[in-house]
Specification:
Blueprint lengths: L12 E4 L16 H8 L7 H7 L4 E4 L5 E4 L2 E2 L2 E2 L13 E5 L20 E5 L3 E7 L4 E8 L5 E9 L10
Parallel strand pairs: 1-2, 2-6
Antiparallel strand pairs: 3-6, 3-7, 4-5, 8-9, 9-10
InterPro entries: Metallo-depent_PP-like, PAPs_C
Protein name: Metallophos_C domain-containing protein
Length: 168
């Protein structure tokens, strides 16, 4: 039904507390049994990633981790790092926007090298603004509130009129 309604509601954006993907933490909490079940499901519950793919989700927001991380459009091990990955994205864009949580103090640094699927990581305290300009353009900004408010990440997500990713 979501894909049938794309003319009226062209953007499909989801949110959940725990991220499906993350690259920070010594034990990488996104690779444990609970995260696996969240991503792929169990015998009795469906996983979220197959549903996001089936319904052609454009952007998925999560929190839980007290940092900011933006991924290239990805689905499982597939990711798009083309010269313009955010124009007609071929998979959902996963964003962790948890930098506003926790105590106001410097966050711990990322403890491992970024995944090749990770486009941007920031540990500053901050928040995310998502501006839906029209049916084809969204602007995403991550603002740091440390050392004066300033933008630490920003990007346009664009798609052609009627674009529905091929995975849905």
């Amino acid at each position: 039904k979501a894909n049938q309604n794309r003319k009226a509601h062209p953007w499909l954006i989801t949110y959940q507390h725990r991220p499906i993907y993350c690259s920070n933490r010594p034990t990488n909490r996104c690779r444990n049994k609970e995260s696996w079940a969240l991503r792929y499901g169990t015998k009795t519950e469906p996983g979220l990633e197959p549903l996001y793919n089936k319904h052609s989700v454009d952007i998925n927001f999560s929190g839980h981790h007290h940092d900011y991380e933006r991924y290239y459009p990805r689905s499982g091990r597939y990711y798009s790092k083309s010269p313009a990955p955010y124009f007609n994205p071929l998979a959902p864009i996963y964003i962790i926007s948890g930098a506003g949580g926790g105590a106001y103090e410097p966050h711990t640094a990322f403890d491992r090298s970024p995944s090749k699927m990770s486009a941007k990581r920031v540990t500053d305290n901050g928040y995310t603004i998502l501006s839906v300009h029209n049916k084809t353009h969204i602007y995403l900004r991550q603002l740091s509130v440390e050392n004066g408010e300033h933008e630490v990440d920003g990007l346009w997500i664009r798609k052609a009129v009627g674009w529905v990713p091929p995975y849905g």
